[in-house]
Structure formats: structure tokens, C-alpha cells
Design a protein that fits this description.
The chain is mainly β. It is built from 1 helix and 11 strands. Strand 8 and strand 9 form a beta hairpin. The chain starts with a strand and ends in a 5-residue tail after the last strand.
Length: 107
């Protein structure tokens, strides 16, 4: 457990946190940029009793993608974590995987 502000928050492992709504970033890159490999970023989520992130932090990501990943991370939703039948806030680190898209010539 750890404190986040004035609240005790439990840290749970990535596999235990069930995501109920995922949003993936759309990141366009210049023509000629390799796009054959998926990209992954790690995000630390502080999640409230309703499963809504109250704070997100991109902790591992290529600097060109951080802003886009940060923006969509706030839209993720989780299944509330319960202890003795009561929902409690939690912290979890999740990996966000996505593909890069090449800019079209008309942009």
C-alpha cells in the first residue's frame, strides 16, 4: 500500500487489473518511418473506486509518443478493485500497445 494525497492506495499487479474500456492512440509518422513493429508504452494509473483513472503517468515511452499516450490513458476504464466487498482505489502499471500509421500525402 502507499499514500496518494491523503488516501491509502493499494498497488496491484498488471495481470490482476481488468480493463473494461481501452482507447489506443492514433499516431501518424512521416513516410519512410518503419511501421512494421508494434509500439509499447508503460503507463502508471491511479484508479478510483469507480474504475476511473484520477492520475496517469507515462513512465516508459519514446518521447515522440508520450503526449498522445498520456491523452488516451485518461480515457481507459477499469473494473473496480474490491477488498471484503468494498471498492477501493488502486495503482497499476499497464502496457499500452499500438501501431504507427504513415501520414497520407494529402496531410
Amino acid at each position: 500500500q502507499r499514500k496518494e494525497g491523503d488516501q491509502e492506495i493499494i498497488r496491484i499487479d498488471s495481470m490482476s487489473a481488468r480493463v473494461t474500456h481501452i482507447v489506443r492512440p492514433t499516431i501518424t509518422v512521416p513516410e519512410g518511418t518503419p511501421t512494421d513493429q508494434p509500439v509499447a508504452c508503460r503507463v502508471r494509473f491511479v484508479v478510483d473506486v469507480n474504475g476511473v483513472p484520477t492520475k496517469t503517468e507515462v513512465i516508459a515511452c519514446h518521447e515522440d509518443h508520450v503526449a498522445s499516450v498520456q491523452q488516451i490513458a485518461n480515457e481507459w476504464r477499469f473494473e473496480p478493485w474490491t477488498v471484503d466487498g468494498e471498492a477501493i482505489p488502486f495503482v497499476v502499471v499497464k502496457e499500452i500497445r499500438f501501431s504507427l500509421e504513415v501520414e497520407s500525402a494529402s496531410q
